[in-house]
Design brief:
By secondary structure, the chain is an alpha/beta fold. The protein contains twelve helices and 13 strands. The protein has two domains: 2-106, 2-Layer Sandwich (Nucleotidyltransferase, domain 5), CATH 3.30.420; 115-295, Exopolyphosphatase. Domain 2 (Nucleotidyltransferase, domain 5).
Amino acid sequence: MRLAIIDLGTNTCNLLIAEILESNYKVLYRGKEPVRLLFSKKNENWIREDAFIRTSQALENHLKKIREFSISRVELIATSAVRDAGNRDEFVSFIQDKTGLEPNVITGEREAELIFKGALLAFNQIESPSLILDIGGGSNEFIVTSGSEIIWEESIPSGMSRIINMFSLSDPISKQEETELIRFFKLQHIDAIFNAKNAGVRTLIGCSGAFDTIADLIDKVDPGSKKRVRQEIRLNDFFKIYKILINSTRKERKEMKGMDNVRIDLIVPAVILINQVITALDINTVFQTDYALREGVMAEII
């Protein structure tokens, strides 16, 4: 069976095409399209009309690729921006009418569960207590695991697109603004840090998004050109990238080898959050994985 799984996030619409081979799988294609489902500052929970058009065009592009394969099943999963939108029903109806696809709008808890299953597919088994972190545009998912079981999870609507709308950040970010963001993240994720500490977490597993960009910057490769099931990010390498990014201008980030255009503005608050987590939990091992929500859906089907 061949299936196509589309993850409609706040910034990007990601496609995975895979073939299921009994209890195994083979990835045939990965792709993404920008959608930028940013809420206007006047109405924090309202998807703008231009985003309606961008999303339908992104999905049409994905459908063209899907038609190149003999697909048995297509799953379209919508997350934070859509589930929180006041015009959610209108948006879903528009997408359905334009593309024939019916978005499955999932809860934050369900999103965290699928991200966990995707990470588990990448690692086969997560033996030591770990924190799985997915930093999105609309929400952040924290999943505390031990022995390949979920101990605790949360999904908080404090993703990086929301952050850059909430905070007017300088270019480059000022020390005071960095401190304000650290304070904000501490308050937003106080329960996550508490539960991770109680579980004895010393390993951080970063899923997709910002972690992909960090790995690409470290490896100095074009965004998305290096496929990684899992890769260790040495702490020294992370701290070097962190210092470079928080001292960089937008123009400088745009020219960095490995910088995804979607993350030019989002990566600075993202690495501040990651650094805060590493410091608060005294993390000694960090992994990056390409596997997240889409792969979690695939794991369930398998």
